[in-house]
Amino acid sequence: MSVETTYQIKGMTCGHCAQAVTGELTLLPGVRTVEVDVPAGVAKVNSDAPLALDEVRTAVDEAGYELVGIDG
Fold first, then answer.
1. What average pLDDT does the chain have?
2. % of the chain with per-residue pLDDT over 90
3. DSSP string covering 10-66, please?
4. β-pairing, 3-10 with 42-47?
5. Whose CA is closest to 5, among 40, 38, 34, 29?
6. SS3 68
7. pLDDT at 31 over 80
8. Residue 9 in contact with residue 17, Cβ under 8 Å?
9. Cα-based angle 6, 8, 13 (whole degrees, multiple of 5)
10. pLDDT tens profile 37-59
11. 66-71 and 42-47 as β-strands: parallel, antiparallel, unpaired?
């Protein structure tokens, strides 16, 4: 089983931002893929199971950005 969740992230402006967010989210247990859309300010995360929101928030904070919500 696989779960796709789209997270709204504030503060991303460039490809480096996308790499930083992707790198941190990929470290979370169970994460399979991460696709960041900088202009839309979102990251789509495909994982084995739903991720704990506090863990996602911590990863985004570590990358230097702010998790502001979840789409859908």
1. 96
2. 96
3. ES--SHHHHHHHHHHHHTSTTEEEEEEETTTTEEEEEESSPPPHHHHHHHHHHHT-E
4. antiparallel
5. 34
6. strand
7. yes
8. no
9. 120
10. 999 999 999 999 999 999 999 99
11. unpaired
**Chain-centroid distance, C-alpha 20:** 10
- What the block records as the tokens of 20 is 């930083």
The rounded distance, in Å, linking the Cα atoms of 9 and 52 is 16
Residue 72 has pLDDT above 70, yes or no: no
Q: Residue 71: what pLDDT?
A: 86
3's CB contacts (< 8 A; 6+ apart) are: 46, 47, 48, 49, 50, 51
Tell me how far apart the alpha carbons of residues 5 and 35 are, in angstroms, rounded to a whole number. 11
